[in-house]
Amino acid sequence: MKFNNIKSISKVLFLFVLIATLTSCHNRNPRKIVGLTGWSASDKSAVGSYDSKKGYKGQQAPPGMVLIEGGTFTMGQVQDDVLFDWNTTPVKQQVRSFYMDETEVTNSEYLFYLDWMEKVFPPNNINYEHIYQSAVPDTLVWRDVLGFNELLTENYLRHPGYADYPVIGVSWVQANQYCKWRTNRVNEKILMDKGILKPLFELDSIEVEGKNHFDSETYIQNPYALFDGDSTIYKKGLPVFTKRKKGDPKPKRGVFEGRHAKVSDGILTARFRLPTEAEWEYAAKAVVEGREYNNIRGRKKYAWSGKYTRNKDKRYMGDQLANFKQGKGDYSGVAGWSNDGADITIQVKSYEPNAFGLYDMSGNVAEWVADVYRPIIDNDANDFNYFRGNIFTKKMIDAEGKVVIADNFSVQYDTLDNGQIVPKALPGSVKYLPVTKRDAYMRNNYEKAYNVDAKDGELASTKFYNKEEDELETKPRMYNSPVKPKVIGESGYIMQQYDTKKRNTLISDKTRVYKGGSWKDREYWLDPSQRRYLPEYMATNFIGFRCVTDRIGPMTYKRRTPITAKVRY
């Protein structure tokens, strides 16, 4: 009996020794990411560094947005091509994950933008006289020479009855500027909620006007470049994990004693922008609902499943699934019957969302996307996050090595082809320049700043492919589109005159894609694969827009758990 007890104890001791040996051979949790220097968090803080992962819980969906999990899909591939222009040939594409607005930007949201612009850049100040007007939508797009729509020109944008309707009359240029402004307002609110920034419009000591407003890029570059270094705009800031030495005076209440937010904190949102054509089509098709394992079964003609525009559910049998033109002189159907409920646009979220949770991806209004239009997307083109329209830039640096911030007295304007005057950079924002050939020297991913016409319109695409641009008096044009009027003097103004030469296309480097059908279109255009184009400075009464922002980190909220590799000893 005693021998058996000794034998049992020996087995237990042997087991403990074996476990201790295995533990010493490798980390208990092989998936745990460990530091490579052996420095602890307190050691790093002593040299002014800090753990950027500490407290970071992952990216949260911005207000009004939903996550669109990326994946592969067939871009193009329409069932009907009655125009026979073959601009939707199938191309397999990979799209990265991103966040997208549930709905189009509404009149009420755009009015907040206009109110802010009018307050910060008052039109009666000669320094900003064109800034506010450059953001105002063209309400006259409702006019028709043989129609009576004056009520809409006066009320659609500002009347509360249309508050939750999608904003229209906005050009691609205006939509792009709204996205930049939205980035600043979202980050401003984040810093206010984090106790870093005070509510600027509530402070009596400062005036929010001109360059004195919050700009995300300026803050990231130098927080004290805002408001000419006035530190009273800040609260305590983020905590600094350093111990106060004995005898040091306690900081005064309300005085900034922490540190400012950095990109590495993961607090500030990524910039908002217009979706690329590939992103918009991928989100609209929502092929995820036709997924079977790693394959997609069938095709989707619309943003919803099925090949018909009417609801099949018993409760809503016969109701239209989108707002579109049903026939000649028929925008809503017969009164009292199952129609689409609107003669023009309709309040957002009036119809069911698609499988991604997005509303009105078919119908209501068509939407601007970021891409410059070309008739085809070649099979040899980039198949990862495809986009045409890249102009690579860099921050402007002055003689002192500092980033240049636009001021109130040197606002530069650009005059669009239709005569509208728009600012190149708002006061208070960071100035940018196109990258030079020197910047791109020995790079294998790009060679120059301007890549809008890459592989379809640049010199290499013409019969002069073996020439250099410096050797030619004028650059040859691949697309015979109208020419911009001549600029007069240094003011940037142009002489408003039509191009008198015979042209055969509107396709140019200023032509942008818009996607989706609208209240004014027949159901043919509801197919997300269909694509149309319009010059970026034009606006209509059937094109709106929505914003997207990039997903940072993992593609999805789901935690992937790979199989742990076996470790041999």
Q: State the share of residues found in helices, binned by percent.
A: 10-25%
- CATH superfamily assignment of one domain? paralog of FGE (formylglycine-generating enzyme)
Look at the structure and give the mean pLDDT: 87
> How would you name the oligomeric state of the polypeptide chains in this document?
single chain
Q: In one word, what is the shape?
A: globular
Q: Return the string of H and E elements.
A: HHEEEEHHHHHHEEEEEEEEEEE
The number of strands is 15
Tell me what the CATH architecture of one domain is: Alpha-Beta Complex
- Assign the structural class, choosing from mainly alpha, mainly beta, alpha/beta, alpha+beta, or little secondary structure: alpha+beta
Tell me about this structure:
The protein has 569 residues and is of the alpha+beta class. Among the domains are: 60-176 and 276-389 and 512-562, paralog of FGE (formylglycine-generating enzyme) (Alpha-Beta Complex), CATH 3.90.1580; 195-266, no CATH class. It is 16% helix and 10% strand. It is built from eight helices and 15 strands. The protein has a four-stranded mixed β-sheet with strand order 13-12-7-14. Strands 1-4-15 form a three-stranded antiparallel β-sheet, with no helix packed on it. Strands 2-3 form a two-stranded antiparallel sheet. The two termini are 37 Å apart.
